[in-house]
Please model this.
Amino acid sequence: MIELGDAHIKKYPIPTTQEEDVQQALGILWTQFEQGVTRKADLEKVLEGAVRPGILDQLILENFVFEREGLLELTSKGQNIARDMARRHLLTERLLKDVLVLPKEQIDPNACRMEHVITPDVEEAICILLGHPRACPHGLAIPQGKCCEEALGQTGPVVVSLSALKSGQEAGIAYFSSQDRPELHKLLSLGLSPGNSVRVVQTFPAFVVSLGESLLALEDSLASHIFVRKKNGK
Amino acid sequence: MHNHTLFQESEREHKKIAHKQIVLIGHPNVGKSVLFNVLTGRYVTVSNYPGTTVDVSRGVGSLGGEVLEIVDSPGIHSLVAYSEEERVTRALLLGRPEVLVHVADAKNLSRELLLTLELAELKIPMVLCLNMKDEALSRGYWVDAKRLSQILGIPVAQTVATTQEGLEELKGAILKASPPSWKAQYPLEIQKALREITDEASEEVKLLGPLLLQNHVTPEELAISRVFIPPQILVRIQGTQKKFIRPVSAILMQTRQEEASHIVAEVLSKPSPGRSTGLSRFLEALGRWSLRPWPGYFLGALVLWALYEFVGVLGAQICVNFLEKTLFGEYVTPWVTLGVRALVPTVFLQDLLVGPYGIFSMALTYAFALILPIVTTFFLALGILEDVGYLPRLSVLLNRFFHLMGLNGKAVFPMILGLGCGTMAMLTTRILDSKKERVLASFLLALAIPCSAQLGVILGMTSGLAPSVLGIWLGVVMGSLLGVGWLASRILPGAPSPFLLELPPLRLPQMSNLFRKVWTRLKWYLREVVPLFIYGTMALYLLDRMGWLQIIEKGFSPVVKGFLGLPEKSAEAFLIGFLRRDYGAAGFYQMQKQGLLTLRQSTVAIVAITLFMPCIAQWFMSLRERGWKATMVITAAVLSYALLISGGINQMLLALGWS
Model:
């Protein structure tokens, strides 16, 4: 966690290259651990390629990681940073893929850079916008943040795809996950555009939503590209 | 059939007397066509489903002592051209008509304003016509038309087109139409881009800037446009579009969306919760039920059963029996025959009129006693379904079913229409979104959808036979639809487009509108059908006279008699079946009544004539809509499939011991 000096005037220090390396290495370790890779020899190779040689020794020296019988584990200090980094990286990946619709090869390099400059506030905002996603585009679990726990405790994710709603639920349209379809323009001109509210009339045999005074029938495959913000209490 | 040339001729004709052109424009189902008829006096089909006015209708009306050309454009959602309709309408607007009337659904103001604002940018003198004011009022909406008119800088009229309420107000508004004063406040980057693109261009090109920026204009559109657009501008546009991550059209749409919501907040109020009557509440509930699996599918089955009772029983059996047996059989035919034999000099001419292949005895009897009652009842039933707004609901219910065939729910429109007339249905395939779906629908229409006249005759043929005959026929048709559709959808390249359809509310049909529509369609049908019947009969007569008919029958004998196991004479039915499918079916009907067909032969005959080639009119329509290549492939596939299946059925029945 980056400590907040003053609650009123937030300062977001830009990390130095040293810090960035540590953060990045810890983030990588998190995702490797998630996949069950814990052997020191394996991890050393991964980190050497992705960050720089000798980074693992530094992590051990600075008490982020410790070694036990050839296997690595995170200290609680290391765990905090690693979890945070992994969360930011994976959330950024989702943002770049779903909302900004960048091509595949752009996603990883950009996410690697952005994860270091995203502040906790931005991280939370992205998480809410994306509807507290559980997994990154590659299928890795995204560590849950505070906002996720709160949201899940109350109502489940706030932003969900329209196709996940049940009959009778109301929601405001947040964004479309795909930008390059000709249908998108038609949806917009039918009034199905960000900011407007829709109510789900039925979900089978086709999805039907009401929007103002009009009724629209659409297929699940289209509805799943429309992300909506659920109205409170429902 | 030759709409294109007709279209140009009528354009020239109107230009002579009318100097001003008024274009009606708007979303589908807002009553443009009804207004068009009221303004021009000429009737065009109006209905509740999208795609009826794909062709542009033009008429002449007078306003304030001046003769005007009035154009009814296809329903569109936006000027950004993705669909056929949007392209046609864009082309109309690029021609800069004198007045633009945006016909809008009064109860959906916020959505309608999106289009109003888009149109306003063209700065063509414009009128906003808020139609269906009654529906808006009954839902409790009230629009401050005066304030709206001030904001947009154009006259705003409120009308109910079906009762002609507010018509004078609209006419007055058209006379006062002015270029809109409203201007969109686009994001700064867009404004800058617009300035760069149209920097040294003429005033007219500047007005088209936003439209050009959103969507690349095709060379054909440039040719139509009265405005010259320098080629370097188009190059610049392509460069600018690439600068934005999001599609430019989406950015502009969002701006208009925001501005529209500000305007709506200012002019729209909902003073009352609406005064719904018992009837409107019932229709609303029925509308909801008809979409749900239960009782939706049950209601759907009920509708199809009613359709069958009305067309298949009342039209094809009761009316046909009366007309053919009683009216023609006992009165008309004997008298005409007597008259012709007495008055016409040579036997050749007598036989041409009342012989076995006579124009009267064959062509006109089939056309009026057999086919007319069937198509009349079908068009009536279809008209009611359209005006009620049921078909879009049926497409929601059947969407998943059509998915199996690589189509989506929208295919209900051409398929149901195809049960009436395949030629009309072929025209309606245009409403399908992708080329793949249009080809698939054309193929299935040609193969397995019998038209109402043919269906009527087939039902008539099966009515006296064992129920298993109807069962076999139904099984083959449904199996072909699903099986061949499934296979073809996997062979044809391309992905199916997702289903997206606006559902109009259920309404009571308006009798006057309904009857005028049925009459228009009947006229169209008679103009197409009667001449074809007559030419076909004359051709048959001549072939028979010259002895070629027997040669043809002998020539096809190995296939017809050997493979299909039908009498040689059946070649005639197939031959004229190409002229009109129902005519071919009627040929078998006649043979059956004369006792020339066994049970097995009747079964093979109805299967073969259903799967066999579409009629020549539909074939030409396919040529026009789909082009040579696709039509030839479809024809070859249909012919070989029809032969294979009918022959197979014949062998199967023989094996089962049917005589």
About this structure: DSSP finds nine helices and eight strands in chain A.
